[in-house]
Design a protein that fits this description.
131 residues
């Protein structure tokens, strides 16, 4: 891998977009779910949770950039296949395991998987088409 050929500005922009999508998902204004950040008066705990989301989203964007940097994606169908493979290979197994093993309700697990698909698609689009 050539990390020097990765456009880190695009990785940061993609991570910020993913972070905003996550903030909307985890907010109480979008809808109440078990994935919402609990309402708390402790601002330090809330800041740590949001910082964790930001770091994880940056890592996701960096992994997508490394994968896109090492692959040759041809056309829009290649891009769609890439997104679907990343989602089906990394996100979907975790969500299905959460649903089956941890007895998570189906609807929140499905919505969470869809949110992750949107984040992957947005970050991949930014990194691939603006680089």
């Amino acid at each position: 891998m050539f990390f020097s050929s990765i456009n880190y500005l695009l990785v940061i922009i993609a991570a910020l977009n993913g972070f905003v999508i996550s903030l909307v998902w985890h907010s109480h204004y979008f809808f109440e779910n078990k994935h919402s950040v609990p309402k708390t008066t402790n601002k330090k705990i809330t800041a740590i949770k949001y910082l964790s989301i930001a770091i994880i989203t940056f890592i996701q964007a960096l992994v997508i950039a490394v994968l896109l940097n090492s692959l040759i994606i041809i056309g829009i169908w290649g891009f769609i296949v890439f997104i679907c493979l990343i989602w089906a290979g990394f996100v979907l197994p975790v969500k299905v395991t959460d649903y089956l093993v941890e007895k998570e309700k189906f609807y929140p697990a499905l919505l969470s998987a869809c949110k992750d698909f949107v984040i992957i698609a947005v970050m991949s689009f930014i990194i691939l088409f603006f680089s």
